[in-house]
Design a protein that fits this description.
Residues 1-17 form the signal peptide. The chain is mostly helical. The chain is 75% helix and 0% strand. The chain has five helices and no strands.
Amino acid sequence: MSKYLFVLALVSCGAFADECATVSVAAMKIMEARQSEVPMAAMMMAADQQDPAYQAVTRELVLSAYDRDLRYSDESKRREITEFGNMAYQACLSVGS
């Protein structure tokens, strides 16, 4: 789980030029954890350890990831991870415009 805590910490790092790209990367890592069968409770605990300014978005990403089905082939997992990252990126851009 510590690997996922580190990844979730990326969401709270304000030094990135493109915040939507950062959200996308975090979303992909969250979906990777979901597809690796990391328990949702563990991911929510990690989300709750984020900077309060980023907790809500991280929790929403976790909730959204766990609403999606598990995939069983490696190719299906890769597709799901990429698609989830793209969805988060698009949603972030929509909020910004």
